Amino acid sequence: MQCSLVSGDGRHEPVALPDGVPVVLGRGPRTRVVDKKCSRTQVELLADYKHRAVRVTQRGVNPTSVEELQLQPGNSSTLQEGQTLWLVNGRYPYTLRFLPAPHSPRRSLLDFFSPKRHLPGEGDEGRPPKRQKAPSPPKEEEEDSAVATKLRQLQETAASAERAKGGAPRLPHGAALGLPPHPRDSWEEHGKLLVFTKEGVVPSAKVAGFDLDGTIITTKSGKVFPTSPDDWRILYPEVPQKLKQLQNEGYKIVVFTNQLGISRGRLRPEVFKAKAEAVVERLGVPVQVFVATGTGIYRKPLVGMWEYLCEKANGAVSVALQSSLYVGDAAGRPPNWAPGHKKKDFSCSDRLFALNAGLLFYTPEEFFLGWATAPYQLPPFDPRELDPQGPLYDPPDAALVSPTPELVVAVGFPAAGKSTFLKSQLVPAGYAYANRDTLGSWQKCVALVAAALRQGKSAAVDNTNPDPESRRRYIECAQDAGVPCRCFLFTATLEQAKHNNRFRDLTASGHVSVTDVVLNSYKSKFVEPSLSEGFAEILRVHFVPRFADARQEALYRQFSEG
Ligand SMILES: Nc1ncnc2c1ncn2[C@@H]1O[C@H](COP(=O)(O)OP(=O)(O)OP(=O)(O)O)[C@@H](O)[C@H]1O
């Protein structure tokens, strides 16, 4: 199981709350709270997985609240799923997310952000679910930034004007706050990200995001891929009208599109830019377009484009996750998902992008045509479900480290986590370490291991060792030295290894990226290790997630490929 605290105004990534481990939260880079009224150690949170709740203890001077209940310094209360925690002075809302959800291991994040699925246009003019009412407002505030203070005052004035009119407080839209619309069409480039902002785009707390191909447009030719730059048409006649309606309701309209062809040299950036501008022109509403031109953090389903929007391309207006939405056709729908729709979706990356970001998700047919929710499948490996409290290895009564000399031979997929585990568990206990990637050949590994055993030391071999032949060299080494040889079988699956490999590429550890060919070759060569090969014991080593910091965890917990 996994528990995290989700920022209700999307200020930062969810914070993991391990079972029974106190986590202290307050002002600082982790929460991006700069308000001096919030202590750096404002609250202590203690997750209780058994009861799916979190004990909240106020450590700061100013009040933390759970729903309407204001705490005092040193006081505690229990935060349940569905309730809101306000970090200080009725500001900075958070909700809890436990995964997997009860009775539904595959329940999506959408359920946590919107208890009832809610299609815009269904009898309520597309308004988002009602927001929680904040407890008493802050008395006086000091922010590091005068601009942020001014903006917040404007936002609060706009909200109270709405309240005075008797309506529910509306979320800030730049126009209502007096922010000027974007003055002219512009393109910006940030590494593998292109951003187009149409004249008239205004920042807003409510964002309606859309994929481009297969969602807003399709090909005129009927082919899967466009045959020329002008081979496109609007997918459904309802699209422009629906976007106009969203604009009138105060949504900022944003397109997020993957265009890997640009970095692969198959699509010239100028050609794509001209097409994007023509599509926006045809839609007739101001749109901001984010284009991921290569692999990396900007490519959906990773949320780099979304974060860029929230942090750098929405003026100073904070995006409200619960009131925003995302529409895309890569939704993981199986074959025959609706009459006349025989083909399964080519991927699930749009749905996963929304899941990663914590956004409400709709397919184009659900959103533009009002169709019922279609069935879908998520990928077999779900990085959100890894349990940091899970067992490290089986059988649990085995010793991880031997008090007498031995040889440990690893077996597992590339990127299964072998090096990380052996270096953190065995090397600190004095084991010599042999790895073919660094030494250059298996012969050198054998030599290193033999020398260590001769000196009366233990040793560990960190190679994939998929078959008996690759393992036999080391077993014989141990037999020659008269010490036992154990096998550590890393249980991470192919899908997880692929995810780890992408994570390793993104975190720039200096390791050479492993291709799918290499991963699949391990799978085809793999023969389950057996005691009959000469092993004294076989330990099954599980992947128990451990992260250097919350940012690494936030990245790892995202679905990384559709
Ligand atoms: N317990 C863990 N928690 C979180 N991340 C991990 C853990 N173990 C490994 N990783 C990450 O997974 C990626 C792959 O891990 P590692 O390099 O240890 O795998 P490996 O099996 O040694 O790979 P290779 O055989 O290709 O050398 C790395 O980015 C690493 O940081």
UniProtKB/TrEMBL annotation:
* GO MF entries: ATP binding; ATP-dependent polydeoxyribonucleotide 5'-hydroxyl-kinase activity; double-stranded DNA binding; polynucleotide 3'-phosphatase activity
Assigned EC number: 2.7.1.78, 3.1.3.32
Please state where this protein is localized: Nucleus
What are the start and end residues of every segment in region (Disordered)? Answer: 109-148
| Regions of compositional bias (Basic and acidic residues) in chain numbering | 119-128
Q: Which GO terms describe its cellular component?
A: nucleus; site of double-strand break
Spell out the family assignment given in the record's similarity comment: In the N-terminal section; belongs to the DNA 3' phosphatase family.
Spell out the subunit comment: Monomer. Interacts (via FHA domain) with XRCC4; mainly interacts with XRCC4 phosphorylated by CK2 but is also able to interact at much lower level with unphosphorylated PNKP.
Q: What protein name does the entry list?
A: Bifunctional polynucleotide phosphatase/kinase
**Species per Swiss-Prot/TrEMBL record:** Gopherus evgoodei
